[in-house]
Amino acid sequence: MEEYILQTNKLSKSFGKQLAVDNVSLKVKTNTIYGLLGPNGAGKSTTLKLLTGLFHPTSGEIIFNGHPWSRKDLKDIGVLIESPALYGNLTAYENLLVHTKVLHLPESRIQEVLKIVGLENTGKKKVSQFSFGMKQRLGIAKALLNHPKLLILDEPTNGLDPLGIQELRKLIRSFPSQGMTVILSSHILSEVAQLADHIGIIHHGKLKYQGEIEKNKDLEKLFMDVVSEKAK
Q1: Which residues are in the AAA+ ATPase domain (predicted)?
Q2: Looking at residues 59-69, what average pLDDT do you find?
Q3: How far apart are CA 30 and CA 123, in angstroms?
Q4: For residue 155, what are the contacts with CB-CB under 8 A and spacing of at least 6?
Q5: Cβ of 17: how many Cβ atoms within 10 Å?
Q6: Among 42-51, 52-61, 74-83, 201-210, whose mean pLDDT is lowest?
């Protein structure tokens, strides 16, 4: 097994004259949770979109599972970036059925992932009647359909109430023991502190810090030092 499921080497992305991601070199260990932190607009979402092929890098490389990333690797990657794209007029089961057809997956997988995210008893209820938290969980179920080795979640707790956050936290924390590595993007420090094994801090498109979360270290102080550029 590769020690790192994902690495980037001087990954950069420009939009015209704006450099959104600037020479970012990530190292994400297999079967861990990696928290990608940064203020709003720091380049977190752009970085994740590069990792999932939604954006093409301006320069640099992505290594996935020991080889250069290609679109074929998307079969091993699950993604929830921003709000999940769901059909409001369909049930949870029917939404996932659409994607099993597209991905040529067995229909039996649907009940498995619905049970994982706690939506197995939603029956004929239309997704348009779901709470925001239920929609987030269905989005994660959709990302889990293909048995991903890497799960990428961008701000997954946005808009959730405290109970929803607690439930989602427990769910995410269970994934490494199921053979999944998670990259979790957030600007909520307390959330990442409770979930992640390692963190990277992005500011102005640059990876300013990367390392293991230390139990006795003040994450808020570390973050503020890094984004105020006091850290060396």
Answers
A1: 30-208
A2: 96
A3: 35
A4: 82, 185, 186, 187
A5: 5
A6: 74-83
**Partners of 11 in the β-ladder:** 24
CA distance linking residue 74 with residue 146, whole number of Å: 9
pLDDT at residue 33 is higher than 90:
yes
Buried b or exposed e, range 34-43, using 16+ CB within 10 angstroms: bbbbbeeebb
- Calpha distance 30→125 (Å, rounded): 37
Interatomic CA distance for residues 80 and 180, integer angstroms: 14
| Structure tokens given for 37 | 């932190």
Q: What are phi and psi of 120, to 5 degrees?
A: -70, -15
Cβ proximity of 133 and 83 under 8 Å: no
Whole-model pTM?
Answer: 0.90
